[in-house]
Amino acid sequence: MMAQLLDGKSLSLEIREDVKNRVEKLIHKNGITPHLAVILVGDNPASQSYVKGKETACRKAGIISTVVKVDALISEVELLKIVDDLNNDTSVHGILLQLPIPKHLNAENVIEHIRSDKDVDGFTPKNVALLTNGFPHLVPCTPLGIIRILKKYHIPIEGQHCVVIGRSQIVGKPMASLLLRENGTVTICHSRTKDLQAMAKTADILVVAMGKPKMVNSSYIKTGATVIDVGISRVDDVIVGDVEFESAEKVAGFITPVPGGVGPMTIACLLENTLTCYESLVENKR
After folding, report:
1. Which fold is adopted by the domain 141-263?
2. Residue 261 DSSP code
3. Do the strands 233-235 and 238-240 form a parallel or antiparallel pair, or are they unpaired?
4. Whole-angstrom Cα distance, residue 244 to residue 209?
5. Residues tagged active-site
6. Whole-angstrom Cα distance, residue 109 to residue 4?
7. Strands 254-255 and 161-165
8. C-alpha dist (Å) from residue 187 to 40, 149, 163, 183, 272
9. If you ran DSSP here, which 8-state letter would residue 135 be given?
10. How is domain 31-115 classified at the CATH fold level?
């Protein structure tokens, strides 16, 4: 029996429609339009594509989207000045630094300078600390989207063994914190984990975020497990994830496709986070 597909695309459309309706009501109530500013450093084709997708999503939701494009050779001092200007701009409610940025720039330092109440990515130290301590406010979009998928399909987290492969600040670590908050029993694995295959196969919920195309096949998956594939890569002109889908779907109980699984949820949750920032800055200060 084949695994049931976890359709992130359809769920993301529901969320985006809800965001659009909320935006209309907020504009009518406050006379102020939510505004997201994205800083794009350099001309990385993948980054440009991602930013274009975010612009389109904002426009359809009624959110103003401003892309601040800067040269790849910009100094860190100049980039921090741009962040400060956006921090102080009362018309801007959310700020996003499109990653990666050129290696001569310290991404962590730049992110630290973003106001925590405008941090739509949930990457600033204050928002990371709030999440880690069990009081999330602005949460990284991809892990948040994964939790939304699990809840949409009524997949239990409490008491389940959740294995997260990947320990990045963007997905792995915040994912573990969110699963813990839902009372999952969480194991974080990474490239240096001994016998990764055996560890993965103990998971009731397996989240794969290693950035290695088709790394996980059916031999890593317990029969009936839920498999969440965060990876997205282009191999021989085909979009694939970190999970070898063809073999995995024959073993798993539930699985996210690539594309159409986690990816659309990331942008949908970005829109929600933009509204969270807006409400914090506009609604709560009326």
Report:
1. Rossmann fold (3.40.50)
2. S
3. antiparallel
4. 13
5. 54, 98, 121
6. 42
7. unpaired
8. 34, 20, 5, 13, 28
9. -
10. Rossmann fold (3.40.50)
Amino acid letter, residue 3: A
Position 224 scores a pLDDT of 98
Determine the Cα–Cα distance for residues 275 and 118; give it in Å rounded to an integer: 10
The segment(s) of the chain belonging to CATH 3.40.50.720 are 141-263
Return d(Cα 121, Cα 205) in angstroms, integer. Answer: 24
Instruction: Tell me the two tokens of residue 223.
Output: 């029969």
Q: What are the residue ranges of helices labelled H in the chain?
A: 8-30, 45-61, 76-88, 107-112, 125-132, 141-152, 172-181, 196-200, 245-248, 262-281
Q: Locate CATH 3.40.50.10860 in the chain.
A: 31-115
Main-chain dihedrals φ then ψ at residue 123, nearest 5 degrees: -100, -10
| Cis amide linkage into residue 259, ω under 30° from 0 | yes
Tens of pLDDT along the chain (286 residues) come to 799 999 999 999 999 999 999 999 999 999 999 999 999 999 999 999 999 999 999 999 999 999 999 999 999 999 999 999 999 999 999 999 999 999 999 999 999 999 999 999 999 999 999 999 999 999 999 999 999 999 999 999 999 999 999 999 999 999 999 999 999 999 999 999 999 999 999 999 999 999 999 999 999 999 999 999 999 998 998 999 999 999 999 999 999 999 999 999 999 999 999 999 999 999 776 5
